[in-house]
Amino acid sequence: MTCLRFLGVVLTALVTVAGGKLKLIGDELASDLHGNAVAVRPAKKSMADGPEPGDLADSFTVRTLDGEFSYKQGPQLGPLIVHAFTNKSGFLECLWSSESSLSSLVEELPDSTQVLFLSLDDCALSDVWWMREQVRKKEVLSRLHFSPVPVFALGNWIPFVLYYWGCVSRNCVLAQAVFSSEGWNMPIIIKRLDARYDWLMTRWTQTSYQLLDAGDGCDASPTVAGAVAWVSEGNCSFFTKVQNMAKSNASGVLVYALPGNPIQDMNCIKDECNTTLNIPAAMVHQDPSVAQALRSAQLVFVSFQTTPSPYFFFGVDQQGALSEMGWFLYPSFSFVNWQAQWFDFYTELQTKLQNPAKVVPVFDKVQMQGEEGAVATVNMPPGLLDFNVLELDASLSCPGKRDLSCAHWDHTVQLFICCDRLSPHCNTELGRWITAFRRGIGRWLTDVSPLLPLLDGNKCTLTMKTVPWAMPWVVSLNLRFSIGNHTDNGKEVLHPFLVMSLYNGGTFDKNYNKKFQPIKFPVPASTKKVELYAVITAHGSDDHSCGEFCVTSHHFLFNAVFNNSLIFDTAGSPLGCTTRVIEGAVPNEHGTWLYGRGGWCDGLQVDPWRVDITKQLEMNGSNTVVYFGLFEGHDPNPSKDPGYIIMSSFLVFYK
Ligand SMILES: *[C@@H]1O[C@H](CO)[C@@H](O)[C@H](O)[C@H]1NC(C)=O
Ligand SMILES: *[C@@H]1O[C@H](CO)[C@@H](O)[C@H](O)[C@H]1NC(C)=O
Ligand SMILES: *[C@@H]1O[C@H](CO)[C@@H](O)[C@H](O)[C@H]1NC(C)=O
Ligand SMILES: *[C@@H]1O[C@H](CO)[C@@H](O)[C@H](O)[C@H]1NC(C)=O
Ligand SMILES: *[C@@H]1O[C@H](CO)[C@@H](O)[C@H](O)[C@H]1NC(C)=O
Ligand SMILES: *[C@@H]1O[C@H](CO)[C@@H](O)[C@H](O)[C@H]1NC(C)=O
Ligand SMILES: *[C@@H]1O[C@H](CO)[C@@H](O)[C@H](O)[C@H]1NC(C)=O
């Protein structure tokens, strides 16, 4: 494609080369091009300290292909996503070429969301013209704004955010292949897109490799042993090519696009994904000099590098605050949609937090780390028995303003409460969350009303902690007491008055179910309702990926007949946790947050499982309950590294 620039010089090219459709654009823009080319307002204040995530975005106006786009500081009806494209990135080229990526933009962008598209390139005009052409569904276009003014000529605060925040995320650097050959003065450096982490875990090393032609790579090619194989697109799957080259002992594979084709996201399909390949692979455009050198049997070497670049995406939420967008694990607009869904979730959460409630602050930006965690002793409000709703308003943020300051790993966070040192309920678990991989935006409202009887005391000590070796998190927690009607569909409002502990989890091996003995219990007089309440998560990785990524089920059997089951059927599914972003799961984490897991997601609260079991019980006789946990319907029986179940479970009696 011809490089069309927005600024002055290339106006003739715009009109003469582009023809039909582009001429229209030329005409539209002509007055600007002749006059003041950059139709943006100057920045209002000094940016010495720079806007950071969480700061209010300033007002701005930019020229677009359709007129102009104006943003006014303050609360917004919906989020704004700003994307700066560059065709120097193979990742972004694929993001804008892949059918599945583009269809997720046009089909799934939340209705609330607007996107402003910019380009970092000299050829901003042709870039954004091409980008708009890629979006074929016109209904969505009214919410997409394409600016032909290159980022370096915007003259407002946007470039500052893009340059100053920089690219810290996976795939937001310029990944490149560097070719050299004896006859050349200069190396040839072109963009590349590495194959998906899904099936290729191996990364390129710093080494320089010889490059050898291996045709279409659809057959083994013994000559490439120790070299990087140069393989054409087509005739068989990407997976087949890489597998053949791995069998041929190649050190890596470069698949080149056929002329006119874009760089694609090389991934496995279906059953192919069962096989792990252990050589790196990437896709590039075919470079004529490289092809020519290989044809004439010249020695060609290739090495791999990444070059930093400005940030490609940032967001402005409904509160008007700037936000990072996290990692895009592969080239798809789904990551934009997930972040936008999360902005919608967060806005709804803000509304819920306006509902009347008695709020008891526990932690206000307190550091949680080490054996101790975060600890606070708080006075409980009088008249607690009048409330029947208790919600935990918890957030986990990072020591700094950027996600880069956040803890790297996903760990279980538990909140324990003790209102009476002598009670068997002292330090019972009141809430559980899983930390996000390196993102500090998480905030959740969890309904733990059935556990209200645990808060029976004037003073309660709350302890929130994770594993002692985790990097620090900054926690905030409010207890929200209110009166709700959710107990019985408009019938009399019931209050929980007694909590009875049942079972805890443990090592998920062949002896797991042996330790759970039936528990006998009477129902106290005047009880109107009994509820089973359990918080269960599965962790670890045995030979069946249990419990994090395998399907486990958990059963509470009452009076030997009533079998209440909780099945973690999305555990291990590729996108299981993406469906929970609308419920507050932190999107675009710096890790594999997308997979479904055993009863949990990264960056989310663990929802309590609640079952009304009143009808399963003898209200004036004796009852029994027993718990058991299964893997695919059977006792677990791992041959190595058993996983474990973390469980709190209770009977809750209401009157
Ligand atoms: C992006 O780069 C590729 C290869 O360098 C080229 O084929 C394509 O036309 C470019 N796209 C745009 C919009 O300039
Ligand atoms: C595909 O296979 C045909 C027949 O073997 C061959 O002629 C052609 O060059 C191959 N295509 C590519 C892209 O290598
Ligand atoms: C690849 O390497 C293995 C182990 O060194 C060797 O046994 C095998 O013959 C090699 N295969 C090819 C195609 O070079
Ligand atoms: C690949 O794995 C899936 C899921 O574990 C399984 O259903 C399928 O049979 C496997 N395919 C092959 C070819 O092994
Ligand atoms: C119960 O509360 C919900 C809001 O939480 C409300 O929509 C509903 O109308 C209420 N039901 C009754 C019977 O009061
Ligand atoms: C439980 O008590 C009620 C009322 O006191 C009585 O009608 C019922 O028969 C009793 N049920 C059992 C199983 O004892
Ligand atoms: C309870 O249900 C599960 C399946 O949902 C089944 O595997 C299990 O055997 C059942 N247990 C009893 C005691 O009925």
UniProtKB/TrEMBL annotation:
Q: Which UniProt keywords apply?
A: Disulfide bond, Signal
- InterPro entries, A to Z: Cu2_ascorb_mOase-like_C, N-glycanase, PA_domain, PHM/PNGase_F_dom_sf, PngaseF_C, PngaseF_N
Q: Name one GO molecular function term.
A: oxidoreductase activity, acting on paired donors, with incorporation or reduction of molecular oxygen, reduced ascorbate as one donor, and incorporation of one atom of oxygen
Peptide-N-glycosidase F N-terminal domain residues are: 359-481
**Signal peptide bounds:** 1-19
Quote the SMART domains the UniProt record gives.
N-glycanase_N (SM01290)
Top-rank lineage group of the source organism = Eukaryota
Keyword Signal assigned? yes
PANTHER family reported for this sequence: SI:DKEY-256H2.1
Q: This protein is called what?
A: Peptide-N-glycosidase F N-terminal domain-containing protein
Q: Which organism is it from?
A: Mola mola (Ocean sunfish)
